[in-house]
């Protein structure tokens, strides 16, 4: 029996890392991070920040479904079938999850568990951490050594990190 069979969580993680969902979660996380940084200029109440993140996640997911559906119809010269639309919805879900993830911290702030400032801080740094973690794991799974994987993780995180640092310096 393999490790993945012994430990269901490891099997799930292994399957996830071997799927196209990784790219979609990263894409969504970048969108969520950008929105959090933009909202921080004039911080809304926690519930409004959470709503903005959830609405953005839904909008981005639906935009992906719509663009893929139109592209599919243009390529195949026929209407998509219901099963194909369901597949597009399933494939768009990781984008929405990546974009919506920071909403968790604002929901907690809305419940009084966290301060709104802490929700912003956690949202930014966990989003950046997620992007870097995927960069590291991607490199390792591609056969890179630990040092190269750290460099790759640093590289993919640099854009998000630069966004956060510039924002901090300008305000």
What does this structure look like?
The protein has 171 residues and is mostly helical. It has one domain (3-170). It is 83% helix and 0% strand. It contains 8 helices and no strands. It has helices at residues 3-6, 8-17, 21-39, 46-76, 82-100, 103-110, 116-141, 146-170. It is globular, with a radius of gyration of 18 Å.
Order of helices and strands: HHHHHHHH
Mean pLDDT reading = 89
Query: What is the CA-based Rg, rounded?
Result: 18 Å
The unreliable regions are none
The structure class reads: mainly alpha
- Supply the number of structural domains: 1
Helix content percent band = over 70%
**Strand element count:** 0
- Count of alpha/pi helices: 8
Distance between the termini: 55 Å
Label the overall shape.
Answer: globular
Strand content: under 5%
Largest sheet: none
Helix and strand layout, with pairings?
Blueprint (H helix, E strand, L loop, with lengths): L2 H4 L1 H10 L3 H19 L6 H31 L5 H19 L2 H8 L5 H26 L4 H25 L1
Helix pairs in contact: 3-4, 3-5, 3-7, 3-8, 4-5, 4-6, 6-7, 7-8
In short:
By secondary structure, this protein is an all-alpha fold. The protein has one domain. The chain has helices at 3-6, 8-17, 21-39, 46-76, 82-100, 103-110, 116-141, 146-170.
List keywords for this structure.
mainly alpha, single chain
């Amino acid at each position: 029996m393999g490790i993945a069979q012994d430990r269901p969580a490891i099997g799930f993680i292994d399957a996830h890392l071997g799927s196209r969902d990784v790219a979609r979660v990263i894409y969504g996380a970048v969108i969520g991070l950008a929105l959090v940084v933009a909202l921080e200029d004039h911080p809304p109440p926690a519930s409004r920040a959470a709503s903005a993140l959830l609405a953005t996640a839904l909008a981005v997911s639906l935009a992906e479904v719509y663009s893929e559906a139109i592209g599919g119809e243009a390529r195949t010269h026929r209407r998509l079938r219901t099963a194909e639309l369901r597949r597009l919805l399933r494939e768009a879900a990781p984008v929405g999850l990546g974009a919506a993830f920071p909403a968790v911290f604002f929901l907690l702030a809305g419940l009084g568990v966290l301060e709104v400032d802490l929700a912003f801080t956690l949202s930014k740094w966990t989003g950046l951490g997620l992007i870097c973690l995927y960069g590291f794991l991607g490199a390792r799974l591609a056969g890179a050594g630990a040092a190269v994987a750290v460099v790759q993780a640093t590289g993919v995180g640099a854009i998000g990190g630069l966004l956060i640092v510039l924002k901090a310096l300008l305000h």
